[in-house]
Amino acid sequence: MHVVTTRRQHGEKVYETHLLRRSYREDGKVKNQTLANLSHLPPEALLAVKATLRGQVLVGADEAVEISRSLPQTTTGSSSRRRRSTTST
């Protein structure tokens, strides 16, 4: 299976169509069968479909990142430096 993107121009407007297709052979000839029209999907979903068809494993953000340690806001340095510079003058 693969995603085929076709672009057609009518006047100034360009129309894009995204189709999910499969290729197969029949009587020695290559044929295509359209399985789904993906044109109305948002671009992010279309990229996810293409990545999945390439064999990539998609992982949610909560599974991909692990927070090992977080610092309190006052220890970042910028606010404490600003406080010191205003009190010393």
Mean pLDDT: 84
Strand content: 35-45%
Order of strands across the main sheet: 1-2-3
Report the structural category: alpha+beta
Q: Give the C-alpha Rg.
A: 26 Å
Helix content, binned percent: 25-40%
Count of helical segments?
3
Number of domains: 1
* Spatial gap, N to C terminus: 69 Å
What would you say this structure looks like, in words?
This protein has one domain (2-88). It is 29% helix and 36% strand. The chain is built from three helices and three strands; from the N terminus they run βββααα. The chain has helices spanning 43-53, 61-64, 78-88; strands spanning 2-10, 13-26, 29-37. Strands 1-2-3 form a three-stranded antiparallel beta sheet, with helices on one face. It is elongated and about 75 Å long.
Task: List the main descriptive attributes of the protein structure presented here.
single chain; alpha+beta
What does this entry show, briefly?
It is built from 3 helices and 3 strands, in the order βββααα. It is an alpha+beta fold and 89 residues long.
SSE blueprint and pairings:
Blueprint: E1 2-10, E2 13-26, E3 29-37, H1 43-53, H2 61-64, H3 78-88
Antiparallel strand pairs: 1-2, 2-3
